[in-house]
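Support request, priority: normal
Reporter: lab tech (M.K.)
Component: structure prediction queue

Hi team, I submitted a job for Glycoside hydrolase domain protein from Halorubrum salipaludis yesterday, and the status page still shows it as pending. I've pasted the exact input below so you can check whether something in the sequence is tripping the parser. The sequence length should be 286 residues. Please let me know if I need to resubmit or if it's stuck on your end.
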Amino acid sequence: MYGVVTRNADEVEMEPFDLGFYEVKDVTGRAAAPLPNAVNMVSCFGDNAAASENPDLVPVDERGEPATRDRDYFDWAYICPTHSEYREGLLEIVEDCAAENEDVRLDDVGFPREGFCRCDRCERLFEESDRDEWADWRADVISRFVADAADRVPGRLLLTLYPDPYPGHLRARAGLDLDRLAEHVDEFVVPVYDTEYATTYWLETIARGFRSRLGGDYDVHGAPPETPFSLELYAVEVDVDDLIHAAEVAETYAKDVFFGYDANNAAAALRRKDADTREGEVHRPE
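Reply from support: The job had stalled in the queue. We restarted it manually and it finished. Here are the results:
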């Protein structure tokens, strides 16, 4: 199955895609009404606008440095996952999405990375918990949020993961415990973005790593992972031939392949891919 990820409502049913994802809330803070004919997406703890308007929402490290896009390695501003009012607002958005379409996708779930968050609230909640290790407590926070979201989604819940399949990294960096999250999530989505895809060995490595990590047979032709995952490719201004090759690599490992933020380019790639496949068919006489 091929899907498109878009901010344009008129693209969610565009051919030749089988599925449309529509961004209801993105990392800029932009909001849109959910659609009945798309899997609505919610950027959870990435929100430039909210962070700018209320700096108290932003996670800080032990030195008090905020997780904003003004700092190195942060592409957007984060919101602390323990902020109860913001969290409840997210869950209300999830409910609104599920009321339009029973399937929902969560984006940008987790803490910014190691060392966050050390705000007074997080320090207090950790001290009040029964956890001795900070990493365990952070995983509790994120797992509870995803469980609460799942309770509000009558259909399938999809969850975006950072493209890091190395053992323990997602838990240590973002508080994402894949084994616990798999109890609530129907499918993981891994964005593997590049502006060229001129070489794809790294794409294959990441895809194979997730297949192995999520419980699939290491042999690519073996059993699928216990929790399916799909790969999302970046389509904006990517050469069509390179995008086709990336899709061929991705679909070898993943359940489905999605294309982000340029529906026309992605559609052109899929049409050419389909034409090339049909041209290569050999029809033997009966």
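Strands lie at 2-6, 19-25, 39-43, 104-107, 157-160, 187-191, 229-234, 257-260. Residues 282-286 have pLDDT under 50 and may be disordered. Let us know if anything else looks off. Ticket resolved.
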